Amino acid sequence: MIILTTTTYDVLSAVAVAAVVSIVGTLALSALRLRDQRRNHALLAEVKATRAALLSAAEKSEERDIDVIHDVLENAVEEVAADQRLPVGLIRGAIFARQADESLRILKGQTVGFASSDETNIRIQIGESGAGQAAGSGRPVITLFDSALEDSTIRDAAERHRIDPSLRWIIALPVFGAGPEVLWVLTVDGLVERRTQAELRSSVGHLLYYREILSLLLRTHTEREEVKPKS
Amino acid sequence: MSYEEQTFIDEAELGDVGLEPSERFARLLKRVGERTGVGALGLDAIRTSVLRSVHGE
Prior knowledge:
heterodimer; A: alpha+beta; Beta-Lactamase; 20% strand; B: mainly alpha
């Protein structure tokens, strides 16, 4: 038989109290951790929802920018077709962008009237052909072709052979960024039907207006792209 | 040279030929302004900017 002395009883009581305190403490800690975890989950869900909303808004802005820029390009083509009294089907338009390697490539989707996707992948160096010379000089350039396929200003034969052989003329306008640097080039060109330099010159004035609004839109679009969250 | 002719245009030499905004452009600018806010400054501001680039005013 175990006889509990006062001392033994006190020790056991202390141990019991300690055990209870420990259990209550553990439970309290667990509850706190659970609360923190729930709070963190809620915060994480909120962050994810905000990020998704931002990405969605950025994507919608990007789609809208691209649509509006294309609308401007289509109208520029129609304007020149009307000026030159030519069917819209014989006039094409494109927006070239200056690349990091200083070449020019057409902005994705920013063409009107191009039948071949091969031609829309053309790479033109600064100083080559109408677009490259507009970018290099900062001035509008009118080019009339005998044969665009033999345009010796495009040195790379593979690139040159992407061009539609029925191309007869190009009007190329430099599009400036915020400063004096040419960041894009607007080209409107004509197939099959020849035009004189004097005849095409009358369309340059109209195209200056399209160049102006394109500069504003492309700058805004580029700034938006730069601040867009990365997915 | 395999192209027939190439002309670099001096914008200052365009004079005022074709330098008035067309009705098509005015309609486009209104549409662009409504959709993006860009160009909402209006046709006069764009016209002034174009003329400044031509005449260097």
